[in-house]
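User: Can you write out an input/output pair for a complex, sequences first and structure second?

Assistant: Here is one pair. Inputs:
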Amino acid sequence: MQDKKNSVFIATSIDGFIADKNGGIEWLNMIPNPEHIDAGYAAFTKRIDALVMGRVTFETVCGFDIDWPYNKPVYVLSNSLKEVPENYQDKVELVNGSLTDVLDHIHTNGHFRLYIDGGTTIQNFLKEDLIDEIVLTTIPILLGEGYPLFASLSKALKFELVETKVFLNQLVQRHYIRIR
Amino acid sequence: MQDKKNSVFIATSIDGFIADKNGGIEWLNMIPNPEHIDAGYAAFTKRIDALVMGRVTFETVCGFDIDWPYNKPVYVLSNSLKEVPENYQDKVELVNGSLTDVLDHIHTNGHFRLYIDGGTTIQNFLKEDLIDEIVLTTIPILLGEGYPLFASLSKALKFELVETKVFLNQLVQRHYIRIR
């Protein structure tokens, strides 16, 4: 049986925001990066089978003036979207219902190592203790306001630090796995 | 003229709390520490002249069943306390008023390198961009609820990462200085 794993790979400010109060993320690139290092993103995505993201993140990505950035299947969690917008029908699959049912469905498709993305989606997975791994990169800024990565949980969740890396001499990346 | 510096040395959960929802801090010691390493605390306090803390932190420390833990002058910020409780009169000085006035007074006493402690006090100093250095140690747990280290700010504050250390193979300490 395949190992199932739900992973988060994300960057925050020192005070834990993933976007500023206007949704802006330009501060993610505040440290000059002339060689375009990716802080381990390509290596991370190589070891996942599919992405799971919320509708808001999906629509945000659609709004970027870039080519579709994912080369793995993408599942979009939404109770409001009834169908995938044209142009994206070969790229994403809509899923809804309980996270347990959603995961069962995704696993049935042969996708076991999942990249869980988007603030609300990550928070919802954490609330049900469904996150196994967090790769957390901290940008050296206090934003003061914005969209937080973490939200309240009904119980504390312990993690194990497996690795720490520093990129561009300024970005600290901590790699945690859940201890159950 | 002496260099003035306001420093923070504190630990938080991965989600940025300094105490759990009941004010508990036992999770700070969740990683076995048989050799009682101090994560740089003694070295840090050697390079400060005095502490500045809020009333709540002061009263919390007074409530601990331990000897007075500080060997430097302690300034307690309070608008409600009218006098220092007996037993502490040779240890702490009450200060109040604007932080700028408080700092002027402390500097006049010859104390320039200050250890700013306590959640509300740190937040108030950050709101006025009066923190020069943050040494932030992360414990590998998501508490889910509690007393946050950071609060809202009227503007973003950029920092420079000067050092990263790992203690007990699990505690990540990031050392930031404010870039102005």
